[in-house]
From TrEMBL:
SUPFAM superfamilies in alphabetical order: cAMP-binding domain-like
Lineage, broadest ranks: Bacteria, Pseudomonadati, Pseudomonadota, Betaproteobacteria, Burkholderiales
Protein's name in the database: Cyclic nucleotide-binding domain-containing protein
Species name: Variovorax ureilyticus
Domain (Cyclic nucleotide-binding) ranges: 36-130
Amino acid sequence: MDASGSPRTDLREHAVFMLTRAAPKSGMSMEEAELVVDAMRPVQVPADTLLFEEGDAEDTDYMALVLEGQVRAETRTGMPGEEVVISIIGPGSLIGEMGVIDGEPRSASCTALTDIKLGVLSREALMKLLNDHPAAASRLVLALSKGLAERLRESNRRLRTLSQVTRALQAELDAVHAVNRRLLDASES
């Protein structure tokens, strides 16, 4: 705590630590992380709260650093009422960063699994950081880019695996179809 005994200082220090943990490959210094955290606003969210919904085109101009608690990220399967959990996101992770970068509709839904504490960074605050503290902002953007690249690589790996499974299933179906065809042909003779 600082001289005033403010819990905001403890939360700020925790957020700085979490941000440097979320962006380890960006080379962000503690001082740069402090500038980014100071541009964030702290938010507490109760468990079971929908933070944002897949496809939502409104209110996409922010991202958040998870400071405490867990968030579930999920996407729709195309079948009514069916969602696939993409990941469980914990402290030190960023959410919503695609929206803060491109302003496009949310690509997934995020729900608080537990009570959570977030550091929220708006696009406006990011733009101000870019103008006022370009080194800190560029390291943050680099960290966001690296995180998105890692997720894209993981998605590519999963897609490759899914493709291999699909091909194997198709080969099995073709074999079963061939056996069934021979059985039908034999029974007709």
